[in-house]
Amino acid sequence: MDALNQTRVIEFVSLGLTENWVLEVLFSVAFSITYVLTLLGNTLIIVTIVFTPRLHTPMYFFLSNLSFIDICHSSVTVPKMLEGLLLERKTISFDNCIAQLFFLHLFACAEIFLLTIMAYDRYGAICAPLHYPNVMNIRVCVQLVFALWLGAAVHSLVQTVLTIRLPYCGPNIIDSYFCDVPPVIKLACTDTYLTGMLIVSNSGTISLTCFLALVTSYTVILVSLRKQSAEGRQKALSTCSAHFMVVGFFFGPCIFLYTRADTSFSMDKVVSVFYTVITPQLNPLIYTLRKEEVQSAIKHLRQKQVFS
Predict the structure, then answer these.
(1) Confidence of residue 5 (pLDDT cuts 50, 70, 90)
(2) What is the mean pLDDT of the chain?
(3) Per-residue pLDDT averaged across 230-243, rounded?
(4) DSSP letter at 135?
């Protein structure tokens, strides 16, 4: 029994995305370009917001935090995935696997909470504009961001503790291209049904609760838009529709992957790619860089750099 409780596996072998070397080359090129664009686009957003005083508002404060989280979120999995696409044997040590798992859930949960906070921010700005400056000031914004990181850290610690307390003494082949809770706990040398249910109840509850809160807030916003002018309605719809696209693309894979315990589907890897590689690029592509204020600020910073 003591031997069973000891972790014997020192590394995991990943099956990667595909065993077809032609597809691996194509994927490595495509995902490398996507990752570079993700880093550049989100970094540009952060720099633009930081160095443009008129963008120092709650909405752009949250957007800069979203860009930072997207950079971190993609950097947890994509570099290792690109390395695996170029190597025949894809391995990761047990410690690095657990670290990847921890930071993956830390940044993913932080993004879930941040998107929920941003929906609350839009609700306050559109539905209660007179009280908005008092309700959503810089002090409140900082407190909300601190709370979301604290909540994300607690969630990630729970997921990690539930995973590492299991004994791993047998197979070490992960049917994925990165370390996540569902594929890792399948390799444990014990019955994982209870652990799987605890993990699902934790991740699934957070994903579903926040998603329902988002849907509710946007429903209230849409109803309230009937009382506004045509110009105000169009501006609000433009902001909220782009935000809701990001929400849908992010929450869809989360709910699909983390609301079931032992069931796996053939399309899990495809959904995971969208969740870890594509979604972090959506913020600069379909939300922030489409806003005229951001485009104007970027041009202004570029002109200042040229003149200096």
Answers:
(1) very low
(2) 84
(3) 69
(4) H
Q: Give burial (CB, 10 Å; 0-12/13-18/19+) of 70.
A: buried
Task: Name the residue among 124, 115, 104, 100 with its Cα closest to residue 66.
Answer: 115
The whole-angstrom separation of Cα 279 and Cα 235 is 24
> Where does residue 48 rank: exposed (0-12), middle (13-18), buried (19+ CB within 10 A)?
buried
| Closest residue by Cα to residue 151 from 215, 196, 107 | 107
Whole-angstrom Cα distance, residue 107 to residue 103?
A: 6
Instruction: Name the region of 180 (left: φ>0; alpha: ψ -120 to 50; beta: rest).
Output: beta
CA distance 46 to 281: 14
Strands (E), the chain: 11-14, 90-93, 173-174
Q: Give the whole-angstrom CA distance, residue 9 versus residue 96.
A: 12
